[in-house]
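Dear colleagues,

As part of the handover before I leave the project, I'm documenting each prediction I ran so the next person doesn't have to rerun anything. This entry is a single chain, and its sequence is reproduced below.
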Amino acid sequence: MLHEKSFSDSVTFLNIWRIVGRSSVKVGISVVKHLVEMCSCYTTPANVTNYVLSMAQTAHFDFWGTWFGKIENSLFYCPITLAILRGNLDQMILFLRYGFQQIKDRIATYNLCFMNSEQAIYSWLRKPLEERKTERKAIIAETILTMVHICTVQNTARRESAAKCLRLLWSAVPTPYVTQREVEEEIQQLFQNQPTEGLLCSFPYRDESRFLRMAYLYGSILPEAPASGVQIRSLQHLSRCAIRSALSKAWNLPQGIDHLPLPYSLKESIQLKTDIG
């Protein structure tokens, strides 16, 4: 409603939010969840999301608790993860434009998307995400989980959009790429150590060789990722991530990029424009 009235006073925007939040904790949580879902929804206009983000940023108010990935309440959804799983490239671009990160406890987001499908596979893959005893194993499991979802999306346009979202996420994080070999080994471990009878009943691939096609698909989505051997990201990429992080923490992303004493091509790279295909 504020967006429709061209409301642009960030201070009043913040005061309204604080009044809503003080009225009831449950009301505040409900509103935040609605905003996250709305701004990650496939049909929500990007200009509405951009308005909400710009108002919050101008007020220096992390009202989602997700701007810097600090949220710990599992009732909340991760906007970045939700955009990937819903194949919403426009929203993904906007979230990354403002420096959003994936929240650490994003299991609620996967619970939402896998609520009625791939239950057997999800019960196996969610364990590393919940425990996070080994961060690398959790990242690999999450990669496979994302690929399972992409493979089961029937709408071609949304499937391709989800793949682009995954690529874009990797362009914005300093984490070493998950390799195709890591995906293959994790899948092979599934067939070796898990009772596979009934495990794959909800997935289109029934045998190991066909299931491994997900690893090849992952390699085609991220051809720049090494096939094997975990490698640190390039110095240029790590520098880009560091600059984006510093600007985001100063509430100056993306507008601060234009004021950097850098060539235009590097500014385009920091804005991730060179990674949006």
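Confidence is low (pLDDT under 50) at residues 71-75. The two ends are 33 Å apart (CA to CA).

All the best with the project,
I.
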